[in-house]
Automatic annotation (TrEMBL), chain A:
This is Ferredoxin. It comes from Streptacidiphilus cavernicola.
TrEMBL record, chain B:
It comes from Streptacidiphilus cavernicola. InterPro entries: ComplexI_51kDa_subunit (IPR050837), Nuo51_FMN-bd (IPR011538), Nuo51_FMN-bd_sf (IPR037225), Nuop51_4Fe4S-bd (IPR019575), Nuop51_4Fe4S-bd_sf (IPR037207). This is NADH-ubiquinone oxidoreductase-F iron-sulfur binding region domain-containing protein. Residues 311-395 form the NADH-ubiquinone oxidoreductase 51kDa subunit iron-sulphur binding domain. It comes from the Bacteria. Gene3D superfamilies: 3.10.20.600, NADH-ubiquinone oxidoreductase 51kDa subunit (3.40.50.11540), NADH-ubiquinone oxidoreductase 51kDa subunit, iron-sulphur binding domain (1.20.1440.230). Residues 169-189 are annotated as: Disordered. Pfam families: Complex1_51K, NADH_4Fe-4S. Keywords: 4Fe-4S, Flavoprotein, FMN, Iron, Iron-sulfur, Metal-binding. Residues 48-205 form the NADH-ubiquinone oxidoreductase 51kDa subunit FMN-binding domain. Belongs to the complex I 51 kDa subunit family.
């Protein structure tokens, strides 16, 4: 049973640091310009902690859990 | 069938046009035509039964937006704000300006009734800089004594009418789209729950509130009821604004066409190209299989190149990107440049990967911005590559079937928007 939390990107804030893809490689990859390609389906419970960490560690706080 | 209560002195329209008079109506003529502004009792239920949807392009059910704003106001304890959106950023659309010129009081009625219904005490009406609409609107407001509406001109940009851009501008901000959480219905102008409705939607609302849903549904199809304003482009004539029943065959809307048609653009620059057979379909999203957007329709003559026409529009759309979101900022100029190459047989011949690049970049920008600018742009690209597939193949072997270079769709000659120069 997945949670109802999903990853989202505030595209106006994201500047393609790419840290999120390192912290959460199973859900985030980078496109050819360095911007995240995010798996937008609900997170499984075991991924929530690391997703929160990735969101908190985004240098511009563009990665959101909602 | 229930009897529709008739405002004193009102003439109930059975035929079109309902909201687009031939000459501008001052308050006296407006009141003689439609009767006094209706109250808000049962408004949401009437709008739901009428099936009125937003006429700004997204076709969202109006009653649901009203209810959502009222609910957000209840939850937050903040007084909501109502905004009439007359920012017709799309160069091919003229219906909102035409409506505001001819029937300003119908829009103001709708705005004030909607504002009252959600409990708003502030109402805004926003139009574009350079539209020349403000003096007429000021005069209309002056006729109405106690009614207070804030009139604002917003920068002339394709995206100025996007709801978060508009509420941001009205709050003293930059007027660019923002991350849609929380949505404007919860935090809009000054952080208050905000109802943003297109001006035509409000004019329709003003009529539904007077005459009821049964009357509204005497025009249009059962699934997409009522009438809508359209801007119709045919080669060699100035664009025309009509009010049409949904369900009207497109051919009747275009009228006699001076030359054979190869394709029809439905829904404007965020819309879709359809093959000429669409002329025999009806004006309804369900019939055409594509969104109607804000009602821009254009018939591309057989002697034009659809790729050249699309490339001009894509260049404009790329320049109108607010430049805030990485995928849009990177993708749209690449898409526009690749499409310009495809539109030129000389360049298309030596570039076998153009179609692959366009498909990949389209996928990379879609759904990856805070507003729908990339999504709408991709819709146009994909429909062009489908409808003009044979032309693209011709270009890739070095020739173009177009013989007439005259442009059909209007694109501002200097499209670099303010703030991006």
């Amino acid at each position: 049973m997945n949670t109802d939390l999903r990853l989202a990107v505030d595209w106006t804030a994201c500047t393609a640091h790419g840290l999120c893809a390192e912290l959460l490689p199973e859900r985030i990859t980078l496109d050819e310009w360095g911007y995240p390609l995010v798996e937008g389906t609900p997170l499984p419970p075991e991924a929530v902690r690391r997703a929160k960490r990735a969101a908190a560690d985004c240098p511009v706080l563009a990665l959101k859990l909602q | 069938m229930t009897t529709i209560p008739q405002p004193a002195g009102a003439v109930l329209h059975d035929a079109l046009p309902r909201l687009l008079p031939r000459t501008p109506l001052d308050l006296a003529a407006h009141t003689a035509q439609y009767g006094p502004r209706a109250g808000t009792q049962g408004l949401s239920a009437m709008l739901a039964e009428a099936g009125l949807t937003g006429r700004g392009g997204a076709a969202f059910p109006v009653h649901r937006k009203l209810e959502a704003v009222a609910a957000a106001a209840g939850r937050s304890g903040r007084t909501p704000v109502a905004v009439a959106n007359g920012c017709e950023g799309e160069p091919a659309s003229h219906k909102d300006a035409t409506l505001l010129r001819l029937a300003p009081h119908l829009v103001l009625d709708g705005l004030l009734t909607a504002a009252e219904a959600i409990g708003a005490r502030t109402a805004h009406l926003a139009v574009e800089q350079g539209s020349g609409l403000l003096p007429g609107l000021r005069a209309a407001l002056a006729e109405r004594g106690g009614d207070r509406v804030e009139l604002t001109e917003v920068p002339r940009r394709f995206l100025s009418g996007e709801s978060s851009a508009l509420t941001g501008y009205l709050s003293g901000g930059s007027g660019l789209p923002r991350f849609p959480q929380p949505p404007t219905r919860e935090r809009g102008v000054g952080g208050a729950p905000t109802l943003v409705q297109n001006v035509e939607t409000l004019a329709q609302l003003a009529l539904v509130s007077r005459y009821g849903p049964g009357w509204f549904r005497t025009a249009g199809t059962a699934a997409e009821p009522g009438s809508m304003l359209c801007t119709v482009h045919t080669a060699g004539t100035a664009p025309r604004v009509f009010e049409a029943s949904t369900g009207t065959p497109l051919r009747r809307l275009f009228g006699p066409l001076p030359s054979p048609v190869q394709a029809v653009l439905v829904g404007g620059y965020h819309g879709s190209w359809l093959p000429a057979a669409a002329l025999d379909r009806r004006l309804a999203a369900a019939d055409l299989g594509v969104p109607l957007g804000a009602g821009v329709l254009a018939a591309l003559p057989a002697d034009r190149c659809g790729l050249v026409e699309t490339a001009r529009v894509l260049r404009y759309l790329a320049l109108e990107s607010a430049g805030q979101c990485g995928p849009c900022l990177n993708g749209l100029p690449r898409i526009a440049a690749a499409f310009a190459d495809l539109a030129s047989p000389l360049r298309a011949v030596g570039s076998p990967r153009l179609l692959d690049d366009l498909a990949r970049w389209s996928g990379l920008v879609e759904g990856r911005g805070v507003c729908h600018h990339p999504d709408g742009t991709v819709r146009l690209v994909r429909s062009a590559l489908t409808v003009f597939a044979a032309e693209a193949s011709a270009h890739q072997v070095g020739y173009c079937t177009g013989s007439n270079p005259a442009p059909l769709l209007p694109v501002p000659s200097d499209p670099a928007p303010e703030g991006l120069r």
